């Protein structure tokens, strides 16, 4: 909306003449501007002026009385304004005139008054300053005089008065030069008096490493005044007195409390009083021979020192009770830290003499710390410590025993102390899985196939960087070393009351427990990994050399391969009509593995048996754990002896012997915690070392069980030992499983180089896969060589079976995951799978008996069929499926394998339909 024009403003139509004229002038350009135009504008302006005057005159005339009234009022106002201005001028002259004005006169009077006030103030200030200066001068002269005369206490008092005067100095005087001189003189005099007092104190009280000298009076240097010790001490300024008291307490603590309690010294007192010399009291110390037993005399010497201080020093000290109380803490702390705690014995025989010392220390604390020095606190540190002396003794012994255990645990491995432990094993696994009552092996349906290991380079020696064996090959665990003359060998520790015993009889041959000596004419095996000598008794006499017999090499199962080739030929010859040949007999489920064993492993139903056969196995234990269990037994015996000795009185919380008895479990905890950390690198690098640690924990757990059942073991220690036994067993089991898992992980990492066995038709890829599988074979056999000599046969086969099963399962998973397997790749994959058939020889004890690989490698049957299925025809696969020979395979796995091996034909479709019907178990 438009801006409204106010009503008092002229509208556009009522514009005045000047506006119109100006508008015309602004609208006229230079070309139109002329004299005539300008004359016209002047004429119009004159006419407008005359018109305006006329209108004004007419307006006045219309209201003339009002105009005249307003005119007269204006004239009257003008006259009054002129009169008011004249009055103001007169008033200003009377006030501000420089000669007679009121303001200049007032300022002049005030200035004169201020001058008089300042003069009076200056006079009073000068008078006060002179009076105060006179007092200060007098006091300084008195201070200097007293200092020169040697009246040091009075001089110190005069100095305090002088300090008060100087602090109360009037403000104008404190900045004067004379006051600076007075302060300087007063400070010098007071400092001189203080120095003389400090020097007098240093001559009155002398504390050094050799003696304490206390003089009751001392002359002041350069004067005839003699000051008593009490006056010297009381006159010292508080800051200097506090410093002297701290120094005195420190020197007494260092030279006459700690020093006397640390080492043997003798104390002598000497005092003399002359006519012209001040009284002097002296206490002297000098060292005693170190061989002199002075434990009790140290407390007596300290008592003499405190008696000397009470008689000759404390009475002269201000606030002597406070200073005496400040000595209580260093004395009690010194008795504990320098006398009682270091004197704690390490044997029960030394306890009676030590308890006498403790009783004397308690009496000393009561009589001297509490009575002489005035410590009335109810909590006496020495008394509290003495009440728990039994616990302190046991804790010290615990630290010593744990340090001994730590030395044993962290010591470098020494194979010379290792020994063998025999254990009676009940044949559970062979009974359940294989059904043979003698050695866990069933009769074979066909012989074991011979494996040419030299073709894979498996007979090569391990590299030089392999971890060194715990048992040297020359003589087992060095038990064949001759005993030094005059040294009787220590008997071996029994492993358990009924389940574990060490092989200490030289005539016993552990090979009998394995059934190796059933036939003395067995030929020796060539495979180093199946060498039974690692489980032979090193003390047994060498058996008679067996007669050489020809080694029977079992034939490999080739019927399935021939049938497979025949089936492939027939399948390739007929494309429209497909017929499956009917074989005359069912092929074996796997080379050297009976169907009975396979069924036993798949159904998991063990056949009933009237009796369970037992046999003896052995494992190797390091000498370190024997030392540990001996240390545990020593600890328990010492705890029992301490508990029965009645030398120590039981404390309020813990009976005597409990702390020491529980140290046995601490030794076991220290072994569990420290050994795996200290030897972490060697344990991770060597399977043998890891399984030896498993053996050590296992044997130590059995030994702890035996020790726990001993009648000499305190009942309070049995629960801790039971807990330690369970934890050792848990550590052994977990370490056994972890060691196997580490080897399985290593196998999987090696098989990662196969890249899932893809594109094996390429020679380079095939070489990479072959190298990876050969490496797995070498690693497993190296693991077998390292672990077999140290663990029991059962644990050895279980660990080996788990690792072999991990390798086979990985290969099965990768091969069955292939989407397409051409004919060339199928042959090559079959060749790669057959490489690991050499692992079966690791599960053979006797070449005349079949292997028991299936009992420990669940995927062995499945893997054995895989290498055959890769080269079998559709007819062969269908036949094996109908004969229930492929029950280890899932239906989906068989279908996927058939699709990967064969092209999409009616024959494959029929086979897949047959497979999809599933296994029909009769």
Automatic annotation (TrEMBL):
<dbReference type="GO" id="GO:1990423">
    <property type="term" value="C:RZZ complex"/>
</dbReference>
<feature type="compositionally biased region" description="Low complexity">
    <location>
        <begin position="569"/>
        <end position="583"/>
    </location>
</feature>
<feature type="compositionally biased region" description="Acidic residues">
    <location>
        <begin position="476"/>
        <end position="491"/>
    </location>
</feature>
<feature type="region of interest" description="Disordered">
    <location>
        <begin position="476"/>
        <end position="587"/>
    </location>
</feature>
<dbReference type="GO" id="GO:0005737">
    <property type="term" value="C:cytoplasm"/>
</dbReference>
<protein>
    <recommendedName>
        <fullName>ZW10 C-terminal helical domain-containing protein</fullName>
    </recommendedName>
</protein>
<dbReference type="InterPro" id="IPR055148">
    <property type="entry name" value="ZW10_C_2"/>
</dbReference>
<dbReference type="Pfam" id="PF22766">
    <property type="entry name" value="ZW10_C2"/>
</dbReference>
<feature type="domain" description="ZW10 C-terminal helical">
    <location>
        <begin position="772"/>
        <end position="915"/>
    </location>
</feature>
<dbReference type="GO" id="GO:0007094">
    <property type="term" value="P:mitotic spindle assembly checkpoint signaling"/>
</dbReference>
<dbReference type="InterPro" id="IPR046362">
    <property type="entry name" value="Zw10/DSL1_C_sf"/>
</dbReference>
<dbReference type="GO" id="GO:0006888">
    <property type="term" value="P:endoplasmic reticulum to Golgi vesicle-mediated transport"/>
</dbReference>
């Amino acid at each position: 909306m438009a801006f409204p024009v106010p009503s008092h403003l002229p509208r556009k139509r009522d514009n005045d003449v000047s506006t119109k004229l100006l508008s015309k002038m602004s609208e006229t350009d230079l070309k139109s501007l002329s004299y005539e135009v300008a004359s016209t504008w002047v004429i119009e302006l004159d006419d407008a002026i005359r018109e305006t005057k006329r209108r004004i005159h007419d307006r006045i005339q219309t209201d003339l009385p009002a105009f005249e009234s307003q005119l007269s009022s204006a004239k009257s106002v003008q006259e009054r304004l002129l009169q008011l201005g004249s009055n103001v001028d007169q008033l200003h002259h009377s006030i501000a005139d420089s000669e007679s004005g009121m303001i200049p006169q007032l300022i002049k009077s005030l200035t004169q008054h201020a001058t008089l006030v300042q003069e009076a103030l200056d006079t009073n200030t000068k008078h006060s300053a002179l009076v105060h200066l006179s007092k200060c001068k007098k006091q300084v002269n008195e201070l200097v005089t007293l200092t020169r005369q040697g009246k040091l206490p009075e001089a110190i008092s005069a100095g305090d008065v002088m300090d008060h005067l100087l602090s109360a100095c009037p403000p104008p005087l404190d900045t004067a030069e004379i006051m600076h001189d007075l302060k300087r003189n007063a400070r010098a005099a007071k400092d001189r008096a203080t120095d003389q007092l400090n020097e007098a104190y240093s001559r009155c009280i002398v504390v050094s490493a050799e003696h304490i000298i206390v003089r009751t009076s001392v002359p002041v240097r350069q004067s005839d005044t003699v000051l008593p010790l009490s006056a010297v001490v009381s006159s010292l300024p508080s800051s200097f007195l506090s410093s002297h008291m701290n120094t005195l307490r420190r020197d007494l603590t260092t030279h006459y409390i700690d020093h006397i309690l640390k080492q043997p010294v003798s104390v002598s007192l000497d005092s003399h009083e002359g006519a012209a010399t001040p009284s002097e009291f002296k206490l002297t110390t000098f060292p005693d021979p170190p061989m002199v037993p002075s434990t009790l005399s140290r407390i007596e010497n300290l008592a003499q020192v405190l008696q000397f201080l009470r008689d000759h020093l404390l009475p002269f000290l201000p606030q002597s009770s406070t200073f005496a109380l400040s000595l209580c803490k260093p004395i009690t702390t010194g008795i504990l830290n320098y006398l009682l705690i270091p004197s704690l014995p390490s044997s029960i025989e030394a306890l009676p003499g030590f308890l006498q010392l403790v009783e004397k220390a308690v009496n000393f604390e009561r009589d001297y710390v509490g009575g002489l020095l005035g410590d009335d606190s109810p909590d006496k540190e020495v008394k509290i410590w003495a009440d728990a002396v039994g616990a302190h003794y046991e804790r010290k012994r615990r630290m010593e025993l744990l340090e001994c255990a730590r030395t044993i645990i962290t010591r470098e491995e020494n194979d010379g102390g290792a020994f063998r432990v025999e254990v009676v094993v009940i044949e559970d696994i062979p009974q359940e899985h294989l059904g043979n009552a003698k050695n866990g092996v069933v009769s074979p349906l066909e012989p074991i196939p011979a494996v040419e290991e030299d073709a894979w380079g498996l007979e090569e020696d391990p590299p030089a960087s392999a971890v060194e064996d715990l048992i040297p090959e020359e003589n087992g665990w060095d038990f064949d070393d001759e005993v030094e003359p005059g040294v009787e060998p220590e008997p071996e520790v029994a492993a358990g009351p009924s389940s574990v015993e060490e092989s200490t009889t030289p005539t016993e041959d552990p090979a009998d427990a394995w059934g190796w000596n059933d036939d003395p004419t067995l030929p020796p095996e060539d495979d180093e990994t199946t060498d039974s000598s690692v489980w032979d008794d090193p003390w047994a006499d060498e058996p008679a050399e067996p007669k050489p017999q020809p080694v029977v090499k079992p034939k490999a199962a080739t019927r399935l391969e021939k049938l497979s080739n025949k089936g492939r030929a027939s399948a390739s010859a007929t494309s429209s009509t497909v017929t499956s040949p009917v074989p005359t007999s069912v092929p074996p489920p796997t080379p050297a593995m009976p169907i009975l064993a396979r069924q036993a492993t798949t159904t998991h139903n063990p056949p009933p048996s009237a009796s369970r056969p037992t046999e003896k196995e052995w494992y190797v234990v390091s000498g370190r754990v024997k030392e540990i269990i001996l240390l545990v037994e020593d600890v328990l015996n010492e705890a029992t002896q301490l508990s029965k000795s009645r030398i120590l009185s039981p404390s309020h919380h813990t009976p005597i012997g409990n702390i020491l008895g529980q140290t046995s479990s601490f030794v076991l905890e220290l072994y569990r915690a420290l050994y795996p950390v200290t030897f972490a690198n060697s344990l991770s690098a060597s399977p043998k070392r890891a399984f030896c640690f498993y053996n050590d924990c296992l044997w130590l757990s059995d030994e702890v069980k035996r020790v726990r059942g001993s009648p000499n073991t305190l009942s309070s220690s049995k629960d801790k030992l039971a807990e330690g036994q369970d934890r050792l067993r848990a550590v052994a089991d977990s370490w056994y499983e972890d060691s196997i898992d580490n080897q399985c992980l290593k196998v999987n990492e090696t098989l990662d180089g196969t890249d899932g066995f893809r594109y094996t038709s390429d020679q380079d890829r095939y070489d990479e896969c072959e190298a990876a599988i050969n490496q797995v074979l070498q690693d497993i056999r190296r693991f077998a060589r390292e672990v077999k000599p140290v663990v029991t046969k059962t644990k050895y086969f279980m660990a080996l079976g788990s690792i072999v099963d991990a390798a086979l399962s990985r290969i099965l998973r990768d091969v069955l995951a292939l989407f397409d397997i051409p004919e060339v790749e199928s042959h090559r994959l079959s060749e790669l799978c057959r490489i690991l058939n050499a692992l079966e020889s690791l599960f053979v004890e006797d070449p005349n008996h079949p292997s028991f690989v299936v009992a420990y490698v669940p995927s062995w049957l499945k893997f054995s069929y895989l290498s055959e299925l890769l080269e079998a025809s559709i007819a062969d696969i269908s036949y094996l499926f109908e004969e229930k020979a492929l029950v280890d395979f899932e239906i989906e796995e068989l279908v996927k394998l058939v699709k990967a091996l064969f092209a999409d034909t009616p024959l494959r479709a029929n086979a897949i339909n047959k497979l999809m019907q599933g296994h029909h178990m009769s």
